[in-house]
Write a structure and sequence with these properties.
Length: 352
């Protein structure tokens, strides 16, 4: 009854940042896959083709979600509850058994149960949509779900750099709050080598425009991405670019070659030399030393595996990380501790 042409209530994708996960976020696709799809380290969408979703199709998904919510509310109220209840889901599924194994129903119900407050728009670069289309669907989503407090998405620096400031203002005003940007490095030579499709100037331009338009900006960088050859310039230039942007969040995603990517093949052939865990920490120290920002620096991913003297994780994996410049000496002290401890071995799950 509520299904779109894929048999789901609405379309959802696979990838989202850890900080937007859990059952509290609605994962909703505005586009499919990645319009660039050439980064040499990335395995995410390699076999998939990019597609824009028509505005009418996205709105139909939003309408279907709202209709399910209305029916769940009606059942809950009949059972004497003002809020959506688990009993309502049981009755809903007995009325609509076709949703018993529906991923979209499970996501939608968990989200509504948690208050329906945060949304992550998929996939890799929502800003590639024409501005007026993106504004229209954002406004529609906010209108149909007034409980929403925060909408976030991935965006590419190059796309941000090309948008006019007034377009970014319009998108921000329509209700997009937070942007996750894959910067990876600030080193131009390395950016070319990994086929990122942007240089450091575009990273700075895109990041600054996003901050100036009022978005909360998270920039992701990959310690170790340059291997031995580019380690120093990667650290130095990454700090330089991050200083220029001064985003709200800086998130560390240590590099690890993934099967199915060109960089994995280079690693296998021996033309790319990975950093050891200790070398990665030395590079990290160089980057952190160079940071003159007021950002929160975060190690919120399992790839930040380094251990302290006592054997626990060296860095907190908290999504809010460490506030700079106040906690910079503390982070540098942690790195020193990690270097003294030795970091001989990567954990089993990260070994190649
Ligand atoms: S832009 Fe992002 S999703 Fe697309 S290929 Fe590069 S890293 Fe992967």
């Amino acid at each position: 009854m509520y299904a779109n042409n894929t048999g789901q209530i609405f379309e959802t994708g696979v990838y989202r940042p850890p900080s937007e996960g859990g059952s509290n976020s609605l994962l909703l696709r505005f586009t499919r896959n990645c319009p660039w799809n050439k980064c040499a380290f990335c395995a995410m969408y390699k076999t998939e083709k990019f597609e824009l979703r028509p505005v009418g199709e996205i709105k139909a998904d939003i309408d279907a979600m709202a209709a399910v919510r209305d029916e769940l509310e009606e059942i809950s109220q009949r059972h004497g509850s003002r809020d959506i209840s688990r009993e309502a889901a049981v009755e809903f599924l007995s009325r609509h058994p076709e949703y018993n194994n529906s991923q979209s129903f499970a996501i939608l119900f968990s989200w509504l149960l948690s208050g329906g407050e945060t949304v992550f728009l998929q996939d890799a670069n929502t800003l590639i949509m024409k501005t007026h289309n993106l504004v229209e669907v954002l406004q529609y989503l906010r209108h149909r779900f007034p409980t929403i407090k925060r909408i976030t998405t991935y965006g590419r620096s190059g796309t941000l750099a090309r948008k006019k400031p007034e377009e970014l203002d319009a998108i921000r005003e329509a209700g997009l709050d937070r942007l996750h940007i894959g910067m990876e490095s600030g080193d131009d030579e390395l950016l070319k080598r990994i086929r990122k499709g942007v240089d450091s100037e575009e990273h700075i331009k895109g990041g600054r425009k996003a901050v100036d338009a009022g978005f909360e900006v998270s920039e992701y960088w990959m310690p170790g991405l340059g291997g031995e050859e580019h380690s120093e310039s990667h650290a130095r230039e990454t700090a330089r670019v991050l200083n220029e942007i001064n985003p709200h969040y800086i998130r560390s995603r240590p590099f690890r070659p993934l099967p199915g990517t060109p960089m994995y093949d280079e690693y296998q052939e021996g033309s790319f030399r990975l950093l050891s865990p200790g070398q990665q920490l030395l590079e990290l120290r160089m980057t952190v030393e160079g940071l003159e920002v007021t950002s929160r620096v975060c190690f919120d991913h399992a790839g930040n595996y380094w251990r302290s003297r006592g054997g626990s994780l060296l860095f907190s994996h908290d999504y809010e990380g460490y506030k700079f410049p106040e906690r910079k000496p503390h982070v540098l002290a942690l790195i020193e501790e990690g270097l003294q401890y030795g970091q001989q071995r990567m954990p089993e799950f990260l070994r190649l």
